[in-house]
Amino acid sequence: MELALGPLLFNWSAERIEHFYAEIADESVFDRVYLGEVVCSKRMPFLEPALVRSADRLADAGKTVVWSTLALPATEREQKLTRELADFDGEIEINDMSAVYARSGRAFTVGPYLNVYNEAALAEMLSFGCVRLCPNIELSLDATAHLHRVSPTLPIELFAFGRLPLALSGRCYHARAEGLHKDACQFVCDKDPDGRTIATVEGADFLAMNGVQTMSHGLHVAAVQVSSLRAAGVTALRLSPHNVDMLAVAAAFSAFLSGRIEAHELLSGLSGIGLPGPLINGYLYGAPGHMAMPA
Amino acid sequence: MSVKQQKLELVCPAGSAAMMRAAVEAGADSVYCGLNDETNARNFPGLNLDAAELPDAVRWMHNRGARLMLAINTFARAGGVAAWQEAVDTAAKAGVDAIIAADIGVLAYARDTWPGLRLHLSVQAAAGTAQAIGFYVQTYGIKRVVLPRVLSVEEIAKLVRAVDVEVEAFVYGGLCVMAEGRCALSSYATPGSPNLSGVCSPPESVNYHQTGASVAARLGAFAIDRFEPGEAAGYPTLCKGRFVVDDKISHLFEDPVSLNAMDLLETFRKIGVAAVKIEGRQRGKAYVSRVADAFRQSIDAIEAGQSTAPFASLLDGLAEGQRETAGAYRKTWR
Predict the structure, then answer these.
(1) How far apart are CA A248 and CA A253, in angstroms?
(2) Is A133 in contact with A122 (CB distance < 8 Å)?
(3) Which residues of A touch B189 (CB under 8 A)?
(4) pLDDT exceeds cutoff 90 at A123
(5) CB within 8 A of B151, min separation 6: which ones?
(6) Going from the N-terminus, what domains does chain B have, and what CATH number goes with each?
(7) pTM above 0.90, yes or no
(8) Per-residue pLDDT reduced to its tens digit, B55-107
(9) CB-based burial label for B230 (10 Å; 0-12, 13-18, 19+)
(10) CB pairs under 8 A between A and B
């Protein structure tokens, strides 16, 4: 089973990004690395040169590099960027239907932001050029297994580590929380390399904001028996970058996948590395996403 | 595309056959409803039509010169696609004027099985760009798109010019602050998924918890809001609650307001919007009668070259949370 590093969802500095991917290139066990801005196009101009250099370095290190599209392109500029990426000759992951159209039949990965919930929708995606699926985060493992039975040769990459991307808005909550307007946001989301926790009025940590995106407070971890993952057609696990030692996270998943450690050891190992929230997995079992079902 | 200005079609909600009749009697041109199951995005107990009621409902509407649209706008469950296909069959056989769908699997089935059936793209598809809409037009032959409620008027004007399909825009009722069809907040906290089961912040998960003098409204395990004595304890819709960031309590996502774009009707007509939509299948006959009447008179006034101002007061007291906004239609919302 492969390990993939999902696109960075947070607003890290260009310097930090380049350093991060250099480490991933030189020292990590990842097979695939997704690059590109998924959440907010305003961050792009600052980061693009660092990402392009990172792509070269990752490719030189033998990693498969995949560029991810924006999840909610709205402005003309965002649509143009999405069209350009859809025209790209290399591997891309599509996170909005507008890019499916622009891709005009060439191969792509269906990202977790697309609403492919069932075999009929998947059949449509296959006809458009889908060659790999990262299922929507709401899908249970049983639902994924059903998609696999209908399309047994399709590689399936399961979202397996990280705060869950739950919602997108036209409004920027980082800007709103700081009393700013989205159009003059001062890029305040850069203060929170894992997103900023949102608590309830009773003091329970609940969600996390990341610009226009709302995420889970908890970190979703697919510490599911490897045999169950295989039975559901899962061929790769996707780990979403966080402000922790991602090399250690990847090494722990690699040990788990190869059978060197058990699910409970994976979970206890991850609990000790300073994650921004508790470990959760409810969606995999068809339960509310915030829940932590026994491994 | 050149923009065709035409009289705005008034599209109203119906949670029952009685509400459908009330909407038409108050001036609705079209009514949309769902079947009473998980195939539609307002899957609440006691709401929506039974499949057996649908043919009569269509006949009643057509006799009045009105149109009936069936919302089959949730995403089909893996392994359970047949239920959504049956809903499409039911709609086509009953002779509805259109179905409103979001799932590409459902759209493909409707296109292939019922070539004459008019397809509208649901707001749940969150198609807010010319490219996304173009994709659904080219691939599924949709005749109308219901726009996401995250676009400004300026963006809608550009979009209408750029696409070769009718555009329908929400003008009144509940307001999603997240891109519809792309929001898993409810299913994170509760067993209710808007996309999969057609419910958001479901009533079964709501409980009120008294601490001292204040009352917390919870969804499942999470407090969504807290009300002090004398404050009306509202329904805890997740994105309209109060939350704490950096020790500050606020309506972080959205104030408990609802959409009212009556002031923008004339602009919508001018930029070529074909139809305007009222939200609220769950809100009953009295609600739809008053809202349909207010918007009917406003649309007719615009056609006669008159102001809609006299009709604004017809909506007094109807808004959920009692407060209104033009939402994302005005760019300052962001």
Answers:
(1) 9
(2) yes
(3) 206, 288-290
(4) yes
(5) A74, A170, B128, B159, B328, B329
(6) 9-175+257-333 (3.20.20.70), 185-250 (no CATH)
(7) yes
(8) 999 999 999 999 999 999 999 999 999 999 999 999 999 999 999 999 999 99
(9) exposed
(10) 211
* Contact residues on chain B for A199, CB-CB shorter than 8 A: 243-245
Burial of B11 (0-12, 13-18, 19+ CB in 10 A): buried
**3-state class (DSSP) for residue B129:** coil
The tens digit of pLDDT for each residue in A189-204 reads 999 999 999 999 999 9
pLDDT surpasses 70 at B2:
no
The whole-angstrom distance between A57's CA and the closest CA on chain B is 33
Say if residues B243 and A198 touch (Cβ distance below 8 Å).
yes
pLDDT value at residue B234: 81
Residue in B with minimal Cα distance to A74 = B129
Nearest to B204 by CA among A272, A288, A226: A288
pLDDT above 90: percentage of residues in chain B: 77
Instruction: Parse chain A into domains and list their residue ranges.
Output: 2-165+216-285
Q: Lowest mean pLDDT: which of A160-169, A211-220, A222-231, B317-326?
A: B317-326
B138 touches A at CB < 8 Å? yes
The answer for B 221-240 residues in CB contact with A (under 8 A) is: 221-226, 239
Distance CA B255, CA A263 (A): 42
Chain B residues 85-104 with CB within 8 Å of chain A: 102-104
Contact B245 A97 (CB under 8 A): no
Residue A105 burial (10 A CB sphere; 0-12, 13-18, 19+): exposed
Taking CB atoms and an 8 Å cutoff, what residues of chain B touch A209? 245, 252
Taking the CA of residue A61 and the nearest CA in chain B, the distance in Å comes to 35
A97 to B179: CB separation less than 8 angstroms, yes or no: no
| Residue length of chain A | 295
B333 touches chain A (CB under 8 A): yes
Nearest-neighbour CA in chain A from B244: distance (Å) = 5
The alpha carbon of residue A30 is apart from the nearest alpha carbon of chain B, in Å, by 28
pLDDT at B1 over 60: no
Cβ contact, residue pair A120, B245, below 8 Å: no
Which of A167, A169, A201 minimises the CB distance to B184?
A167
pLDDT digits (tens, 9 = 90+) for B195-247: 998 889 999 999 999 988 999 999 999 999 999 998 888 889 999 999 999 99
ipTM of model: 0.96
Contacts of A139 in chain B (CB under 8 A): 78
What is residue B322's predicted lDDT score, i.e. its pLDDT?
57
CATH 1.20.1070 fits A2-165+216-285, yes or no: no
pLDDT attached to residue B320? 64
pLDDT of res. A131 = 98
